[in-house]
């Protein structure tokens, strides 16, 4: 529906603004719809590689992050299997 509402013209630049953890699934859906967008991720949940070795203050913080990750990976798989995404894990172009 977004493509029909926005009616993108050739050569126009459209930014897709959404949470960083949700970006691959959103990009895949836009590509499947034939709506070329540039990713502009926001709402980062980590500070990068240095967070890999940093322990959580409380266990529930780790569980929340795991829940978000599992939700998105399942979403990627379901979108891909049902044809709602152009590929399983859409990478930058």
Commentary on this structure:
The protein has one domain. It has 3 helices and 2 strands; from the N terminus they run αβαβα. The chain is elongated, with a radius of gyration of 16 Å. α2 links the parallel β1 and β2. The chain is of the alpha+beta class.
Poorly predicted regions are none
Order of helices and strands: HEHEH
Secondary-structure class: alpha+beta
**Relative helix content:** 40-55%
Label the overall shape. Answer: elongated
Biggest beta sheet summary: 2 strands, parallel
Give the topology:
Blueprint lengths: L1 H5 L8 E5 L3 H10 L5 E5 L16 H23 L12
Parallel strand pairs: 1-2
Helix pairs in contact: 2-3
Concise summary:
The chain has three helices and two strands; from the N terminus they run αβαβα.
Q: Features of this protein?
A:
11% strand, 93 residues, 41% helix, alpha+beta, elongated
């Amino acid at each position: 529906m977004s493509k029909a509402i926005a009616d993108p013209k050739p050569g126009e630049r459209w930014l897709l603004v959404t949470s960083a953890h949700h970006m691959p699934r959103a990009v895949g859906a836009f590509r499947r719809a034939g709506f070329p967008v540039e990713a502009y991720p926001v709402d980062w949940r980590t500070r990068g590689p240095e967070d890999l070795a940093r322990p959580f203050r409380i266990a529930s913080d780790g569980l929340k992050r795991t829940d978000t990750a599992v939700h998105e990976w399942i979403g990627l798989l379901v979108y891909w299997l049902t044809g709602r995404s152009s590929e399983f894990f859409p990478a930058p172009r």
